[in-house]
Design brief:
By secondary structure, the protein is an alpha/beta fold. It is built from 14 helices and 17 strands. Pfam families: Cons_hypoth95 (PF03602), PG_1098_Fer (PF22013), Thump_like (PF18096).
């Protein structure tokens, strides 16, 4: 690991940040003690860091293998997690590359990172030294640590592995590593507050039915791509209802929050399209608050299975896209024109629509193929 930090090696890495990596791999390393594979890995790490965690673009930082880079949170999502968190002692039980831990622990005095991958932990130890952060590192798997730990912590954070030994994706809590259903009581014995990062594909109703003491759930998207789901557990609070927060980072969308039981009692209103069409962002769609959207923003749904909404007057601060629309006849679609095509609750896919009407992607206009309660419909937005 130290050889990669050699000044000449670092200069070579920085000089080749824009070089084609495949062509680099075909070359012989100019350094006896560092392979070309190691050099390319550092170049990849720097390129990922430019977009994903720019705070690591410092001299002396070492980057891990690709899988660890891919599994790490982005800087923007990690900073969001750290909002309003403070205390004396913080522990990350599955620290990985340590991006979340770095930001979550900023307002804590005592920091502990647990990681079973020795090579990865050595990299994190080195990097946190460069970043001048004091921390207690434990090279152990979570279950072994919990079995002998006698300390209490103000906050526990963990991100369970979501793949099995054969790299297959897993989603149910009992299939994750660690099994959260088996260890949740152990966790509450050593902390009053626990934050768990989970796959955005996991079902919210399922989570609420199997985990204890959930106070809130955050659905976090970045530029309308849902990245992760955070579950906050607090054993010292009696919570009658779970707060669901939908957040779309790096966008102008307003945040949307509600209590889980609100959606259970909400009833949508329906109508044919009016002047404005509203498409909730993907964090809101993931939350499942389909009826509550209609109630909260006083807009009408087009169809029970079409999560599009409409109103005659423009609604401010809607958490998603707003389009001014008109209903059109399919005969008005001219061959060769360019449109941004949206198809929801419609038998034709965007590709099939392009083929049928001989149109292509692009331009500033939208064509929306969908259904109302009266049947299939085509909407146009300039």
């Amino acid at each position: 690991m130290k050889n990669i930090l050699n000044k000449e090696v670092q200069n070579y890495i920085n000089a080749n940040l824009q070089t084609d990596l495949h062509s680099l791999l075909l070359k012989k390393s100019p350094f006896y003690e560092v392979s070309m594979q190691e050099i390319v890995q550092q170049i990849k790490g720097k390129k990922v860091a430019q977009k994903k965690f720019p705070f690591l673009l410092k001299d002396g930082i070492i980057f891990p293998p690709n899988l660890n880079l891919e599994q790490s949170s982005s800087q923007s999502t990690a900073e969001l997690k750290a909002d309003n968190l403070l205390g004396k002692s913080f522990i990350d039980l599955t620290s990985g590359f340590g991006i979340d831990a770095y930001f979550l622990s900023k307002n804590f005095d005592e920091i502990t990172l647990v990681e079973q991958n020795t090579e990865l932990l050595d990299i994190v130890k080195h990097n946190w030294g460069v970043l001048e952060r004091k921390v207690n590192f434990i090279n152990e798997n979570l279950e072994d640590f919990l079995a002998k730990n006698t300390e209490n912590f103000d906050l526990i954070y963990l991100d369970p592995a979501r793949r099995d030994s054969e790299k297959n994706k897993k989603f149910l809590l009992e299939d994750l590593s660690p099994n959260l259903l088996e260890i949740q009581d152990q966790l509450f014995e050593i902390s009053l507050q626990i934050i768990i990062k989970l796959s955005p594909l996991i079902d919210i109703s399922y989570l609420i039915s199997v985990l204890k003491n959930i106070s809130k759930i955050q659905i976090i998207a970045v530029r309308n791509e849902v990245k992760e789901l955070l579950v906050f557990l607090e054993s010292n609070k009696i919570v009658d209802d779970v707060e669901i927060s939908c957040i779309n980072l790096e966008s102008e969308d307003a945040n949307f929050s509600y209590k889980f039981k609100e959606e259970k009692t909400a009833v949508s209103n329906f109508s044919e399209p009016e002047e404005f069409l509203y498409i909730p962002n993907n964090a809101v769609l993931k939350s499942g608050a389909f009826n509550l959207i209609s109630n909260r923003f006083e807009c009408n749904k087009l169809h029970p299975n079409t999560h599009f909404y409409t109103s005659g007057e423009r609604i401010q601060n809607f958490p998603g896209r707003v389009l001014q629309i008109e209903i059109i006849d399919s005969k008005s679609i001219k061959k060769g024109e360019k449109y941004n095509i949206i198809s929801k609750n419609h038998p034709l896919s965007p590709e099939e629509i392009k083929k049928k009407y001989k149109i292509s992607d692009g331009g500033n206009s939208y064509l929306i193929f969908t259904q109302t309660q009266k049947g299939k419909i085509i909407l146009k937005s300039q």
